[in-house]
Amino acid sequence: MPTNRSTHSSNVSRFPTAPATPAVAGPAGGASRQQLPVPAHALPHRTPRELLTLARRGLEEAAEIRTDGMRYATAHLAALRAAAAVLAARAVPAAPGRRSRVTSVWSLLVLVAPELTEWAAYFAAGASKRSAAEAGIPRVVTAREADDLMRSAEQFIAVVEVGLGFSYQPRLEGLAS
């Protein structure tokens, strides 16, 4: 799990970064952010806000799941949706005819948000476990691994929300939705 994250409350348009990683300045920082071309088929078809809402719902769902493997897989999917929100906000479709090999969301995330490289590496490393858990392979993850991934996904989603300028307010228990 990436460590040493700090928030930049003076500029919510950039992501929290590790000390050794330079931040990408957003419009409030005076520098214009370059949007990198990504193959159109790899871009999300939802808005960043929709994807972050789905990510939060996924975390809530994961918290209710009893089996370790499915809790892990559901939390990983929530993090994947948060990464897709960054792509939806920062990437632009590549020029028609420009072909690119198929790549993972985590690889694309590093291209459009290099300050999230540690997070991308962390979640990419867990992708095969997620696939195995979704396939129903027993004991592919432990309860501790599932709990750790839940916490990491929660932190990552919060980092993305701040980085994209969204705020999250937890639902109050007992109130009708």
Automatic annotation (TrEMBL):
InterPro entries recorded: HEPN_SAV_6107
Sequence ranges assigned to domain SAV-6107-like HEPN in this UniProt record: 62-161
Biased composition annotated in UniProt, kind: Polar residues: 1-14
Protein's name according to its UniProt entry: SAV-6107-like HEPN domain-containing protein
Biased composition (Low complexity): 16-26
Region (Disordered): 1-35
Pfam families: HEPN_SAV_6107
